[in-house]
């Protein structure tokens, strides 16, 4: 199960790498970067983008090259790696552990509420 959301820095629009894309009128590549974050999060790839995903993130090979050129992606075998994924996004394993803790906590709260209701009868 993938992430329900990914982090996008509030300073994204003023990131020098994004500004370079905008200056060169490569707006589509900037959008592809955001779509790639969502793709990687929802498919639990920890920032890896297989070359076969380009159509699903509305990207062309030119967009991928633009993102590599400015340093937002790094070439990887059979695709690309989103630069800084591990630094800014939660890993799939950490997300799984977080979900498990939340489920256990929810079950514990429900059990406590059930016991409290039985005591009040």
Secondary-structure element order, N to C: HHEHEEHH
Question: What amount of the residues lies in strands?
Answer: 5-15%
Helix percentage: 40-55%
Question: Helical segment tally?
Answer: 5
Label the structural class.
mainly alpha
How far the N terminus sits from the C terminus, by CA atoms, comes to 41 Å
Rg calculated over all Cα atoms: 20 Å
Outline, from the CA principal axes?
elongated
Q: What is the residue-averaged pLDDT?
A: 88
Count of spatially separate domains: 2
The largest beta-sheet arranges its strands as: 1-3-2
Number of strands: 3
- For the report, how would you describe the main beta sheet? 3 strands, antiparallel
Provide the low-confidence segments as ranges.
Answer: none
Structural write-up:
55% of the residues lie in helices and 9% in strands. Helix 2 (27-42) packs across helix 3. The protein contains five helices and three strands. A three-stranded antiparallel beta sheet has the order 1-3-2. The protein folds into two domains: 1-90; 91-121.
Task: Please specify the SSE layout and strand pairing.
Elements: H1 16-23, H2 27-42, E1 48-50, H3 61-70, E2 73-76, E3 79-82, H4 85-88, H5 92-119
Antiparallel strand pairs: 1-3, 2-3
Helix pairs in contact: 2-3
Feature tags:
2 domains; 55% helix; mainly alpha
Q: What's the short version?
A:
The chain is mainly alpha-helical. It contains five helices and three strands.
């Amino acid at each position: 199960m993938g992430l329900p959301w990914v982090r996008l820095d509030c300073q994204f629009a003023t990131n020098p790498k994004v500004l370079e894309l905008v200056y060169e009128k490569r707006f589509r590549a900037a959008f592809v970067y955001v779509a790639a974050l969502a793709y990687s999060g929802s498919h639990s790839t920890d920032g890896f983008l297989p070359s076969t995903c380009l159509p699903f993130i509305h990207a062309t090979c030119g967009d991928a090259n633009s993102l590599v050129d400015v340093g937002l992606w790094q070439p990887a075998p059979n695709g690309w790696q989103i630069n800084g994924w591990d630094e800014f996004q939660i890993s799939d394993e950490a997300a799984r552990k977080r979900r498990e803790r939340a489920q256990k906590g929810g079950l514990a709260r429900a059990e406590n509420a059930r016991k409290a209701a039985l005591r009040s009868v």
